[in-house]
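Students often ask what a holo structure prediction actually looks like on paper. The answer is less mysterious than it sounds. You provide the chain, you provide the ligand, and the output is a string of discrete structure tokens encoding the 3D arrangement of the protein together with adenosine-5'-diphosphate.
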Amino acid sequence: MKIILSGIQPSGALHLGNYFGAMQSAIDLQSQGQALYFIADYHALTSVTKADDLRRYTFDVAAGFLACGLDPARTILFRQSDVPQVHELAWLLSVVTPMGLLERAHSYKDKIAQGAETSHGLFAYPVLMAADILLYNSDLVPVGKDQKQHLEIARDIAQKFNDRFGPVFKLPEPVIREATAIVPGVDGRKMSKSYGNTLELFGEDKALEKRIMGIPTDSTPVADPKPVEGSILAQLMKTVATPAQYESYTARMQAGGVGYGDLKKELAAVIKAFLAPFKEKYQALKEHPEKVEAILADGANRARALAAPVLQKARRATGLSL
Ligand code: ADP
Ligand code: TRP
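The corresponding structure tokens follow.
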């Protein structure tokens, strides 16, 4: 059975971009093998600086995954930091990781270019990510395009380790979601928590409506046809609506006679209806956080059981263990 592994950082409230770009396909993949999905809280510490925020976002990702359809009976859902053995492996990997490999990492260079403070954690991020992947003998790693290079680094590190110490690690195959459309935010740029342009999965309805009503539009008069090409409203509609709903929406835009205010209200209604069943499950979990904790504790036990023999093999190969 294939091991499918992916992680998501608890570094902000989940939004529609996360759902359509990452969570939906992870949930769809559950039936293809043994999936392990974890909340990358150690990684999030490279950007989240307040303990309460980290706790809140961690719960949000765990409950969010469950609310959106992750089946904890089949899939192992766990918190990265519940398996601290990953750091022992990260060290074993770091001794075979050339500095140049990390110096070339785009995400590190981008963060520095954006003015982020440098830290060893940020620099070593790909080594910990390689450890996440290799610790569970992962076959497939579904990630967004932005993580492609990190996957290549993980494969390079695995190969370097095997070259030095013998064949311990399987080389993981990335499953890159090239086809996934970038979900636009309310300002038309990529939806991202760092731009403050998100539509949250589990936020207040009022806030969602306000954000949608604030989407910039052109000044076409009510009576006139509205352009579909380049319209943020149409792109968001396409993301959440059924094809039939989308067709009807864009047909009405093109026909004219409907103002942007009404088009926005309709978009808000469709997004709210789409999110309603997820929200209901999320709320139920929020009222019983102990249920989420129990699922994470069970996930951690199952993850540790898979990790132990792999780590032992790596320790033996290096000479740390007999
Ligand atoms: P953010 O950009 O809000 O910081 P993350 O980088 O934490 O989001 O996102 C985690 C994953 O969610 C990404 O690797 C990517 O696959 C997906 N994702 C995030 N935003 C979008 C988006 N606007 N469109 C499509 N996928 C996205
Ligand atoms: N770096 C990934 C991201 O920001 C999260 C992550 C951490 C991850 N460890 C991983 C993804 C291992 C896949 C496999 O999206």
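Residues 8-9, 11-12, 17-18, 20-22, 144, 146-147, 180, 182-183, 190-194 surround adenosine-5'-diphosphate (ligand 1) (CB under 6 Å).
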